[in-house]
Amino acid sequence: MTLKNDRLLKALTGKSVDVTPVWMMRQAGRYLPEYRATRKKAGDFMNLCQSPELACEVTLQPLRRYPFDAAILFSDILTIPDAMGQGLYFETGEGPRFKKVIKKRADVENLREISAVDDLAYVMNAVTLIRKELNGSVPLIGFSGSPWTLATYMIEGGGSKDFSKAKTFMYNDPEAMHLLLEKLTETVIDYLNCQIRAGAQVVQIFDTWGGVLTTPGYFAFSLKYMKKIVSKLIKQNDNNDIPVILFTKNGGQWLSEIADTGAHGIGIDWTTEIGAAKRLVGSKCALQGNMDPAILYSSPKVIREEVRRILSDFGSKSGHVFNLGHGITPGVDPDNVTVFVDSVHECSAQYHI
């Protein structure tokens, strides 16, 4: 099926576009009243994720409001640890938690081996359904957490402010940490390839917590494994290239090394100026980002000005996918997202003449 809007795929592969494509991390989420209604209908977050029909519904909701240039699968990065037997659950107001926590090497060795097509079939069914419902309007982005990021949750038992447990585990028993990361890497490869076979046209790896590592630690415990994933992913499906985006939050100091992984795009947060990032990576890959999500709490005038500033900083030529520097936050007025998306399309045309 020919895509009606292929701006995202073109930008990620260095081809010319008419305007800069834009999508938004967490674009299907709590800022939308229709999402909150669907989540209430589901009963809880895991039911929402595990119902292909409801996951499809919330994936499509933002596209009914806004002219985004992509849809992103509604799911959670912690589906993999859950399938491996860690027992994912969500506490109201406290985020994800695991019933089982990795504390020692034996816990890593005893992790359940999974087959994504079987153990995470609900994700693949959602991908297939979403692709059908999109009907070629925009591409669908699949995703996974990075091995390092998944490992931090599995060791900490949930989110963390200082990652003391994960870092202690890493420093005290690096061999056990590498064993865990190897297992997660193989599972992520399987998971993303299954998403691609099911219909995902772009995939993104969320390395949310890579930025908490030292530089040697990042290279050894995070980037090494993401590079392996990139090398093992399906390169084409249905005669179309499958671009890969790597996003390390707070990873701007490692852009050159990330660009050498073979990824098509690098996501950057708002702490890195996109013009400087472009000068650093050159034509090696596209850049995605990087407006501070908090800007969406401001006035339409301020939002437009910030969009213009980022577009100007990147400059002409393709290779830019506009996004936030991290996910949209729940309290944003949905009308401000309209201003954001429309501003990107309207203000970027001059850079693609």
Query: Main sheet?
Result: 7 strands, parallel
What is the alpha-carbon Rg in Å?
Answer: 19 Å
Count of helical regions = 16
Estimate the global geometry from the Cα principal axes.
Answer: globular
Overall structural domain count: 1
Overall pLDDT metric: 96
Please write the string of helix (H) and strand (E) elements. Answer: HHHHEHEEHHHEHHHEHEEEHEHEHEH
Stated plainly, the CATH topology is called TIM Barrel
Number of strands: 11
Q: Biggest sheet: strands side by side, in what order?
A: 1-4-5-8-9-10-11
Structural class comes to alpha/beta
CATH architecture designation = Alpha-Beta Barrel
Low-confidence stretches: none
What is the percent of helical residues?
40-55%
CATH class: Alpha Beta
Account of the 3D structure:
This protein has 353 residues and is α/β, with parallel strands linked by helices. The protein has one domain: TIM Barrel (Alpha-Beta Barrel), CATH 3.20.20. Helix content is 49%, strand content 11%. The chain is built from 16 helices and 11 strands. It has a 7-stranded parallel β-sheet with strand order 1-4-5-8-9-10-11. Strands 2-3 form a two-stranded antiparallel sheet. A two-stranded antiparallel sheet has the order 6-7. A hairpin with a 2-residue loop joins strand 6 and strand 7. Helix 9 packs across helix 10 and helix 9 crosses helix 11. The model has no long low-confidence stretch (mean pLDDT 96).
